[in-house]
Amino acid sequence: MTPLPRISGNKCIAALRRAGFEKDRQTGSHVILVRFEQYGRAVVPVHKELGPGLLRSIIRQAGMTVEEFVELL
């Protein structure tokens, strides 16, 4: 299993945008990203560092594997 890197919310958003996600809206510090072709939705908090459990949850929401996500960083 690929280990999860320690990244910020903004880096996570940038990686998801490379995967085809677009910013739908923002509520407070939480950015909601959507992808229409292969429908997916992910909610990413804009924090300095995302914990490993939270990052794994975001990757799961996006319908990706950890390996696919790490390649986008």
Describe the structure using short key phrases:
73 residues; alpha+beta; Metal Transport, Frataxin, Chain A; 3-stranded antiparallel β-sheet; 3 helices; 37% helix; globular
Any chance you could write out the topology, listing elements then pairs?
Layout lengths: L8 H10 L3 E6 L2 E6 L4 E6 L6 H10 L4 H7 L1
What does this structure look like?
By secondary structure, the protein is α+β, with helices and mostly antiparallel strands. The chain has a single domain, classed as Metal Transport, Frataxin, Chain A. It is built from 3 helices and 3 strands. The protein has helices at residues 9-18, 52-61, 66-72; strands at residues 22-27, 30-35, 40-45. The chain has a 3-stranded antiparallel beta sheet with strand order 1-2-3. Strand 2 (30-35) and strand 3 form a beta hairpin. The longest helix is centred in the first third of the chain and has 10 residues, at 9-18.
